[in-house]
Amino acid sequence: MKISIVGTGYVGLCTGVGLAVKGHNVTCVDIDKEKVEKINTGKSPIYEPGLGENLARVLKEGRFRATGDIKGAITNSDVTFISVGTPSREDGSIDLKYIKQASRNIGNVLREKQGWHVVVVKSTVIPGTTEGVVKKNLEEASGKKAGKDFGLCMNPEFLREGKALEGFLNPDRVVIGELDKKSGDPVAGLYEGFRAPVMRTGIKTAEMIKYASNALLATKISFINEIGNICKKLGIDTYDVAKGMGMDKRISPQFLQSGLGWGGSCFLKDVAAIVAKGKELGCMAGLLESVIKVNEEQPGVLLKLAEGKAGSVQGKTIAVLGLAFKPDSDDIRESRSIPLIKALRKKGANIVVYDPKAMENMKVFFPDIEYAGSAKEAVGKAEIVLIATGWEEFKDPELYGNKIVIDGRNIFKDGKKLDNYEGLCW
Fold this sequence. Notes:
Blueprint: E1 2-6, H1 10-21, E2 25-29, H2 33-40, H3 51-60, E3 64-67, H4 70-75, E4 79-82, H5 97-112, E5 118-121, H6 129-142, E6 151-154, H7 164-169, E7 174-178, H8 181-190, E8 198-201, H9 203-234, H10 238-246, H11 267-280, H12 286-310, E9 317-321, H13 337-346, E10 350-354, H14 359-362, E11 370-371, H15 375-381, E12 384-387, E13 404-407, E14 421-423
Parallel strand pairs: 1-2, 1-4, 2-3, 4-5, 5-6, 7-8, 9-10, 9-12, 10-11, 12-13, 13-14
Antiparallel strand pairs: 6-7
Helix pairs in contact: 1-3, 5-6, 9-11, 9-12, 11-12, 12-13
């Protein structure tokens, strides 16, 4: 099938490359000319395991390309995915400016295009957005009617950064929110070669499944972090507690790894958006507000442990290992290292940081702190080491010597602990 995708961020690019790997012909659209050129040379603009190699492969095989020509891309495709960003406003609600612009642009092309075409919202949007905003804009710009002249669906993504392409190719489930069966059939056809259950439902239900899923995953992490903070006071290893809990099939061990907290592009944005929507509807989401609060407080808990172990950090050199919000990613959005570094600066510490992939991204936020060339260099300059991301290369005990190490990611859970080691929740 011929596919066009508007937007080349994590979701758009991974979806496009994934569909091309599965044998479809994909054209990704972006207004950033430099990004388009980079993609077409086989260089991924984001770090994601397996993405660069597979991008180069599908380009060579002629099943994938990037362009700035939205008209040509849509005219020569059967299905168009909207995969643009939905950033948060200050009150936590989502900003739909990119969604609105993309749907208007697509509608303008559909005005002249002949034949049946399906528009699929892949971006994460609050329930009611696809039908209330996207459908309206498409119809106004095209002069056509959804369900009669073109199809409309919502197909939420459930990608995990660091495993995004793998997750797209081997999903737990595929959810298709469809305006009608005629709209949903082509989208279901795209996933015929996937070994995953396909759920076809209404559009608003599909939108809510995405938000509810992320809200629950964030809740599990904040829950186990609260339990972990209590366990720490009692001298209990919270990972043993989580193991015992996870043996219950109703609970499962997934997302019960206590530590510094969650980050990335989705969890905070999505939980805050559903809280804001609840308030708009007169439904208070006290549990989800607490989920956010617990996550915001975890970097402070780590810093207090460091001060308890070594005294005031003022004037001391502190190494922060890990800047990406998770290993195998260069994404620093909502990374817990950001509030940690801010707190260290406020307390007068000298800071040296290292991350295998995310340092250039972090320099936008902190251009004036020291960036080491290796983990060994960062540790060598520091009196205290704070582990903020669980990169594999940080798991070598020989790296730390006799330095004070405060571990926010339990990277030594399966190996030797250090002499001057302190775990966040264990």
